[in-house]
Amino acid sequence: MHYELKDYIKPKTLEEALKLLHDYKGAAKIIAGGTVIHELSERNLLEGVEYFVDIENLGLNYVRIEKDGLHIGATTTFNQIVNNSLFTKPSYYALYLAAKGVSSYQVRNVATIGGSVCSSISFLDVPNALVALNAKAKLVSLNGERIENVENLFLGMLNPNISEDEILTEIILPLEETKTASYYMKLTERAFDYAIVSVGIKVKLNENGYVENIRTVFGNVQPTPYIENKVYEIAKGKYINEDLIKKIMEEIPSVEPIDSINASAWYKKKVLKVLFRDALKETLEMIS
Amino acid sequence: MNKQALIEEIEKQYYIIGKPVERIDAKPKVTGEAIYGYDLVFPKMLYGKIKHSSIPHGIIKRIDTSKAESLPGVRAVITGKDIPDHRYGLVLFDRYLIAKDRVRFIGEAVAAVAADTPEIAEKAVNLIEVEYEELPAVFDPEEAIKQDAPILHPDLRKYGTSKVSAPWIPFDMPNLNNYRRVVFGNVEESFKKSDVIVENIYETSMVQHAHLEPQSCVCIYNYDDTFTVYTSTQTPFRLRFELSLALNVPENRIRVVSPYVGGGFGNKLTIYAEPIACILSKKTRRPVKIVLTREEVFTFTTVRPPTRIYVKDGASRDGKILARQVRFYINGGAYSGGSGIAVYTYLAAQALATYKPESVKFEAFSIYTNLPPQGPLRGVGPAILDFAFERQMDILAKKLGLDPIEIRLRNISKQGEENIYGEIVDEDYSKVLLTAYDALMKKIKESNEEPTHPWKRGIGYALSSKYSLAPTASSATVKLREDGVIEVFIGSTEIGMGNYTAMQQIVAEEFQIPMERVSIAAAADTEFSPFDEAQMSSRTTVSLGNALVLACRKLKRKIAEYAANKLNEDPDHLEVKEGFVVSKRNPDKKIRLEDLFARGKIRTGTFLEGEGELIASANWFIQAGIDKETGRIYDKYGNKVFERVVNFYTPTGVASEVWVNVETGHIKVKRLVTVVDAGKVINPKLVEGQIIGGSAMGISIALFEGLQWQNGYALNPNFADYKLIQHADLPEIIAIATETPLPHGPFGARGVGEAGLLVSDAIPNAVSNAIGKEVKKIPLMPEYILKLLAE
Ligand SMILES: Cc1cc2nc3c(=O)[nH]c(=O)nc-3n(C[C@H](O)[C@H](O)[C@H](O)COP(=O)(O)OP(=O)(O)OC[C@H]3O[C@@H](n4cnc5c(N)ncnc54)[C@H](O)[C@@H]3O)c2cc1C
Fold it and tell me: Which tens digits make up the pLDDT trace of A96-133?
């Protein structure tokens, strides 16, 4: 360990937690499920950290429907999402699949939705699914609160657009929509693995079955979730058939992917098309 | 013994051999009671930590340990200055236990610390400042043999070597540290006669053993100037030898004890932290424990070397291989280590034993590079060469329009004839292959699963054998205990394959007593255990098994002689079995083994009147070797120099079915049959476990594994980034053991520990069969498959 922990603090209220983060700014690190913290620790990436502030007891573990959307507390675990039937509805299915695809059961028991977003790691699944679902996040500090689109929370690898004294308190998803479905797919080397690349997709059709909206997100193609606008540009107002899918496949991705240790940009480009096609078909099947 | 007699002996009803007896270590391991090196704790124990080089090649200009020394809780700091001026190794003595002036790979030890806690030790290590002058480094073996390549060991020719097996460096080639040649027939002539020639270059990746328990040791310097070393090793005796070299202390001043070992696969055959902990202990006069981290296991211990294999085969129209020419480049890493470089050149060549071309020219080059040293991994390389050879068989078959099974059968070394080395073949290669083939076809027929787009089915085979090295020796001691239990002393460690159970079964068989009436001490200890070479090379069942059979027979004779007086019977007519000594001609004349002991007058204990102890010890040894120039048992004038090159071979046949996704390059192993010739199965559960374990490792190596480096720095030295197979990726593995008796094996048994790894050579054939393109490197990453498909 390249850091020396002075204390592990488990505050009981949000105010208390925010005050600790404020007072120890720079030396305090939020810990939720700790699954990424553990990895950072092993890789000597926690230099300067002296305090862990555990946010498990702040009352941020909830899922509730309000009039402005579906609110998911930051410390809600992946298994709580997987076991809540709300998320198997087509509008939220992408999130369900992303959470369920995280191995293993033990990790899903502790890993939280907030921790996943705040890690800002390009190959994590849940953040990419959230961006596909147009999610917003609420962030709170002693200076007040802000609501951001989730895609605006990533500056780069391990570099979230979140201040050290801020806590992400909840994720807000749009209310369920009709003629809408979503899907998430990842390509991995082994049965349980991080994504080589992934695709999150949400489609809304109009009454006649034409595309009203499509939002597509590619994971691990850029250091932050990549919103592929090309898909909507091509499909807007159209009926999706094999020809259209082929056409889209030719045009995506509209960005040169980053190389990874296990896959080059060349490979990512090739398989993204296939992954997108399969994810889109699955999505459409759920609407009809 | 003639063959008929042998088969009769094998066929007779055994008492316990061949029975699926439960492992004697199953319960303590499942409950967590079993003690490993990792678990050991001693009073006043300190924790050691090693500082490793941060550059792949360079001169150490300055080391400043002052900050580390002044950290509270630090008890000792050592550097290259504190160690004896003695290099160690197994066959080539090329390494200091801590670098003195020069570092040659990033894992190399440059200093070490002993402290009150592991945390303080780690902190102290980070406070040690090392200044280097970087030297140009080289990472590819064929770059390293170029004339202008950086030379890793300028003093190579001055290094000491083992008297029994020195490396062979017959010509000047930069960084070459061992060479092996096999010359059989005349390849030039045979190529001229050939109808087809197939020439390819194959590559294999660097593979780590990934044993569960990292290397762990506690070393204690004793008041009488001796060392006691508790460590996780496959070979207490070899370890003691290497320690004596590295520490410059006679072997009789070092005691090595090895409790249960959490896996080794060849990576626990040499010293790592032990000599460092010994020196720290001597300095502090306290026990010092060092447990390697996983990252250290990846970068500081040994690896299966990356290799490049050039193969050129010439064959006749009917599929008979006439010429096989091979150049095998081994990326040997920075040191020969305990067992690495030197033996790869030597033993990998045994992969040539399976087939008998008209002529062979094989050359292996072991080359220093600035990477971690090489070690055996479930064998020393035949599975690597077999990847190339088995691919060649399929490519040849395709060219000639032959069935892949047929071409193999046409080329195998036949029973009773000589293989290319001149050894008489007792292996039945066709049986393992055909058994695998039949079992797979049956399985496929039973299921009516058909792949649909984008999945494509492929079937692939591999046929070869795993040699077991020789010369080799095992000793064993057995003793009759006062309660009638037979106590067994062996110097073999239990590294997870169940060998203690098999050994106990052999003794139980000899005495015809239940397993509970045999006792094996669960720790090998050089102070008390008889010599055993090592837990390696699939050798224990055969070598130690033979020694035990001999020792048991000696002890039975001794017991009979001792009982003769009491029973008033000729010892020749006495039999020791089922816990009794009994007369063969008068079964009423018998005595219970316990009753041979008398009790003292004041009832303090028991003794054997006028005898001392009923104890017997035996040794089993097999000689072997080659003529260097020919690489065979014959020299170039045709004189026989040795009888054998190795102890024995274990033939293995694999049949696999894979499905390949042609859109993503992903590979699913759907069905797998691994057939290993066990000679005689001592315990079917253990044999099945070894075959399945080896097969799983084989799939993992074929599909996923590769330790990657960039300019001498490891990119994935951890279990998140180094991909090992997961349970969910495994198909049902059908493990079958055939039984072609080994004439000199105990009850006909052969070793089966490593043979399953051959699976890594069947999968590439199946994948090539599925995609219609020839794969030439492993692992078979999805990207590589798509690249081939895009060609
Ligand atoms: C074995 C293993 C397998 C995995 N497999 C997958 C996988 O297949 N797919 C995948 O997507 N992920 C995978 N993960 C990662 C998993 O998604 C993340 O571990 C998890 O979502 C992080 O949540 P956490 O609560 O554990 O975060 P923590 O580790 O507690 O925190 C992560 C980071 O976020 C910060 N943070 C946490 N909560 C907040 C908050 N509310 N406000 C502000 N900052 C916060 C922390 O300070 C830290 O920097 C895997 C992890 C492991 C260990």
Answer: 999 999 988 999 999 999 999 999 999 999 999 999 99
Establish whether residue A119 lines the binding site of ligand 1, counting it when its CB lies within 6 angstroms of any ligand atom. Answer: yes
CB contact at 8 A, B15 and B508 = yes
Distance (Å, whole) CA B371 – CA B711: 9
| Strand runs labelled E in B615-695 | 615-622, 648-661, 667-677
β-bridge pairing A28-31 and A51-54: parallel
Q: Domains along chain A?
A: 7-54 (3.30.43), 63-173 (3.30.465.10), 180-287 (3.30.390.50)
Are the beta carbons of A190 and B729 separated by less than 8 Å?
yes
**Chain B contact set for A1 (CB, 8 A):** 119, 122
Check if A31 has its Cβ closer than 6 Å to any atom of ligand 1.
yes
User: Which residues from chain A sit within 8 angstroms of residue B666, using beta carbons?
Assistant: 187
Q: What is the pLDDT of residue A261?
A: 87
pLDDT higher than threshold 90 for residue B688 = yes
Residues B492 and B454 occupy one common structural domain: no
Q: What is the pTM of this model?
A: 0.96
* Domain limit, last residue, from B622, B643, B670: B622
Q: Is the ipTM of this complex over 0.90?
A: yes
Are B133 and B267 contained in the same domain?
yes
Decide if B122 is inside a domain.
Answer: yes
Please report the atom of ligand 1 found closest to the CA of residue A127. Answer: 11
From ligand 1's centre to the CA of A176, what distance in Å? Answer: 26
Q: Angle CA(B548)–CA(B470)–CA(B181) in degrees, nearest 5?
A: 170
In a domain, B323, yes or no: no
Measured between CA atoms, how close is B160 to chain A, in angstroms?
Answer: 40
Q: Across the interface, do A267 and B715 touch by the CB < 8 Å criterion?
A: no
Residue bearing tokens 């950072």: A40
Residue B11 pLDDT: 58
* End-of-domain residue from the set B575, B591, B622: B622
Distance CA B530, CA A109 (A): 51
Closest Cα in chain B, distance from residue A115 (Å):
19
A193 contacts on B by Cβ (under 8 Å): 723
Cα dist from B594 to B370, B482, B554, whole Å: 61, 6, 19
Nearest Cβ partner of B119 from A1, A266, A267? A1
The one-character DSSP state at A86 is: G
Mutate to test the pocket of ligand 1, among A80, A102, A109, A141 (most ligand atoms within 8 A of CB): A102
Tokens of B420: 């290319």
Domain range for B609 is 3-34+472-622
Of A1, A189, A275, the CB nearest to B723: A189
pLDDT(A166) > 80? yes
Q: What mean pLDDT is predicted for residues B254-283?
A: 96
Same domain, yes or no: B489 and B452? no
DSSP 8-state symbol, B633: S
For residues A195-207, one letter each, b for 16 or more C-beta atoms within 10 angstroms of the residue's C-beta and e for the rest, the string is bbbbbbbbbbbee
Whether B715 and A261 lie within 8 Å, measured CB to CB: yes
**What does pLDDT average to over chain B?**
95
- pLDDT 10s digits, B533-542: 999 999 999 9
| B240-260: average pLDDT | 95
Average pLDDT over residues B745-751: 97
User: Which range, of A263-267, B324-328, B521-525, B687-691, averages the lowest pLDDT?
Assistant: B521-525
Mean confidence (pLDDT) of chain A: 96
Identify whether residues B509 and B654 lie together within a single domain. Answer: no
Which chain B residues are within 8 Å of A261, Cβ to Cβ? Answer: 708, 715-716, 721
